[in-house]
Amino acid sequence: MKILPVAPGHDPGDAAATALDGRGEMTSTDDDMPGDAPCFAHDLVNGFPVDPATWRDVNRFRKAERARLLDLRRAQDQDARARQAETIAEALDRIVSPKPGLVIAAYWPIRAELDLRGWMASAQSAGARIALPVVVTRDAPVRFREWTPRCAMERGVWNIPIPSGGDWLTPDVVIAPVLGVDSQGYRLGNGGGYYDRTLAVQDPKPLTIGIGQEFAAMPTIYPMPWDIPMDHVVLGDGTTWPID
Known about the structure:
Layout: E1 44-45, E2 48-49, H1 52-75, H2 78-96, E3 103-105, H3 117-125, E4 129-134, E5 143-147, E6 153-155, E7 161-163, E8 168-169, E9 173-177, E10 180-182, E11 187-188, H4 194-201, E12 207-212, E13 217-218, E14 232-235, E15 240-241
């Protein structure tokens, strides 16, 4: 599939518009958040029994790994990111096969994430409908609003660009950026818990694809009961699993 350019005037993913405070950090907690607030008095997190000491240790580990991987991301230059995005786009053509009527939820790049907007535009030109996640209510599942390369955009929660209008769509495919991902497909994201909340209530469950830089592979993220693994993972060096 030929990669199409996005419309001029859209902010790049690493500008202040993408990030969330001056350094691109979420202004809310950077801890992993499950679907509901934890209630350690009852040893429950999001309705799951969790040992408080275990959760504390896992949370500490994830915060450290998140910081390490984010530093690696930011150290990469634009050419390296563009090369990896092209490699991932080729893999997505094989895994997703964009076609008329297929609804693909993708993402607007923030925090030095790989920019797939060219692939999104190409998929849209092939007849697929592309949607971006929109936080309607904080700490709740996101909704997906249709995006086109020339649609009007506005600032959403944390100043992340979102479509100003358009249809709300139910995705057949969800493409989720990862900071890290383990061999079982569990992703380390930005820590807000939005993808896990959202995927937990999707019925039927969409095909999920985690997208990350070439260094994103981890032995484990120490998954918790609410973590939802990706069906496929594609990294910037061409690594994919399961094998497609």
